[in-house]
Amino acid sequence: MKSALYLASALGLVAGAQANPALAQTAVPEDTEASVPEILVVARKREESLDDVPASVSALSAADQENLVLDGMGDYLRQTAGVLLVSSGPDYLADISIRGQGGGRNGFSESATGVYRNGIFVAGGGFGGRSFNRLDYFDNARVEVYRGPQGALYGRNAVGGAVNVVSNRPTMDLGLASNLEYGAADRLKLEGIVNGALIEDRVSVRLGGLMINQRGGDIVDINTLKILDSQKYEGGRAQLLTKIASGWEARLTYEVYSSEAAGFTALGQRLAAGLPAGRVSDPSPYLRNASRVGRVKINDKTFLAELDGEVGFANLAAVFVHKNRDGRRLNEDLDHFLGLEGLAGVDMIGNQSEDFKRDGAEIRLSSNGDGPLNWLVGTDYQDTLSDAVAFNGGTVPATSSAALRSQAVRRDTALEKLTSWSIFGSIDYAISNRFSAGIELRSQRDEKNFRFQRIDLVTGPVQTSNPVWQETLPVASIRYKLGDNSNLYARYATGFRPGGFNQGVTNLAQLEYNPETAQSFEMGFKGRIPDLRMRFGVVGYYTITDDMQVVTAASATDTTFTLSNVAGAKQWGAEAELSGIVTLGNGRLNYNLSAATQDGRFDDGSTIIVTGQLVDISGGRVNRARDLTLNLSSFYSHQRWDGVDLVVGGSLRAERGGYENATGGTTHVSGRKLENFTIIDARISLKSKAWQLSAFGKNLTDKTYIIQNVNGNNYYNERARYGVELSFKFGGEQ
User: Fold this and answer.
1) What pLDDT, on a 0 to 100 scale, did the predictor assign at position 197?
2) What is the model's pTM?
3) Counting C-beta atoms within 10 Å of the first and last residue's C-beta, which end of the chain has fewer, N or C?
């Protein structure tokens, strides 16, 4: 993997020095009066203009990414208002939340946002299975965000919405690209891409690799002065495209990815509040007073096969995925996390492993004519297996309580298998030149098999469950063209988030929790104003979520975090986007402004257990729903020298209001409020058609805020980062 990466990067660097400028795109097109370009997306499983889709959709193109400061998935999501990355520190525990959905989460729960690569579902499992890894969005053509339930066409988990990363595909043109970045925290990033034909007009290949090695960091152990949050990522992708016959092509993709980063306990600040005398806490957000350093290691292999072609009356698309992932969480300082550090004779070590496998397939037929009727029909299949083991070790005094001795030496084994299949389809009909209507429908069947056993002071019973869930998910929409470039639409949509299992509960009645479902009513107005070179969109929505999954405790005496279903919730909000181009002198200013507001209340009869007490959260504020999220990004391109442009840009993200947990806004228990913050990133570049030299900064004001509190441990955002970047391109579009 390293060899392929270094070869691709070296070729890119060499070729970049000899680049042919005529084969690459400049930052400022010759026609500075050009209108806002059309954006094509696949929000309805077919390629169409973003302006014509009767739904709230955003797309971040490769050109946008080139001028912004983007690294982790959170940076990408911050470009879209109303979308959050919910994290408890490590990347592998992150969830994507859209429109306030997804507040109920634990280590092995399903996400409330659909996670897709090239249109197929790729999520699942406990070690990074609810979001994307860094290779997933490496070398992408665009990142599409679909807000609101997407259950009919995208199916699984799309209660709040879905995120679809569309990878760049092999082309027949020779192309080379490389990127070298060095920054604060002794962080080195290297990327390389090679693309070209193996057989002219028949077979092409695209190879790419990335490496990130960060030896420094923010968090330091005061006892050893060791940096705890160092990290390393490596990945490679090989793609082969074959044009089988006229109108038919097949693509094979193989990916290998590995990561090593700080563990869950190393990243959290153990607070002093509530700890008895003699217990050890951490002196500041970025200093740790611990006895050991936990690490997380994940290895991932993915194979994708795609087939596209015409069968006379229709287009055929098929995609197949196979994934193997093994994750290991090692040497976690469990007693530090639990607030027991400093207690005589206590040294508790936490470890966990998971082997995860996924096989999936989706096959679609869709209309290929130019008439008023567009239709699509398809089927998909998912089969996953998660084999997880949690094993704690260490020592505690023999006089300790049975509960503490049980937690200190414990082995949990959990085996979960999912088999899911569905059929789906859509019909969209243009009733007139201005008015069209569409319906979508999915019938989905999920079967899960679960087996759990705990061995601590005694060998516990084997707990098993085998639920089957059948769901029918409809969507209906209407669209009215107010003019050549604007649309008014209304949409009714549904979503489904599968249920799951609470590992290790003593009360078997709490072992299983049920799916949650959502119904959304949405109205929007979107389009372009060509004379002003501007694109706009505004939407309002109201969502009814039934059987909402929330975090609670196992019982009044067992504080183990579990998920349970409450009666439901009502949620509502609004979103607005404005983007465009302004000519200033010899240059061009590109801008994008988006804002969203969210609110919601739990239904009557909703209760959870908090600190040993049953709490009525009826009428309380739904957690993770922000009062305001605001994003502003822009970059100015100005030709300063012959063939060289100066590009200055950046982004601002502000978030205000909302609650972290489900007790927020109730009169019974004071919930933790989400912290307000504003993050500013910036980049300045010299750019030609063949190379780009940049300096960048993230979180320029070094804003520190709490992203999550777990069991008396605070987890914080990344501090200010600065760096320089050099990239080269040669040949076809890279």
Assistant:
1) 96
2) 0.92
3) N
